[in-house]
Amino acid sequence: MTHRDYLWCGVNLALDGEEALSRLCPACRERAEESRCPVCGAEAGDWGENRGFDMERFLEMGGGD
User: Fold this and answer.
1) Whole-angstrom distance, CA of residue 34 vs CA of residue 27
2) For 24-54, what is each residue's pLDDT tens digit?
3) Nearest to 22 by CA among 13, 32, 12, 10
């Protein structure tokens, strides 16, 4: 696939998502756009920070530059 093909696929995925949301009532659309866990449905605010993330290791590997 070319870069153009990937761009076309990405744009169409975004448009498909918008189309699916446009079919929902305002209350359901608001709920669908919330950031939630895909397994249990917990709100993103309930997750806290990623306990498995090691900032020292991240910086050591050059991710902080």
Assistant:
1) 11
2) 999 999 988 888 887 888 787 766 677 788 8
3) 32
Q: What angle do CA 35, 44, 65 make, to 5 degrees?
A: 95
Contact partners, residue 35, CB within 8 Å, separation at least 6: 43, 44
Closest CA to 30 of 42, 40, 21, 17: 21
44-61: string of b/e by CB count within 10 Å (b at 16+)?
Answer: eeeeeeeeeeeeeeeeee
Question: Angle 10-18-28 (CA atoms, 0-180°, nearest 5)?
Answer: 140
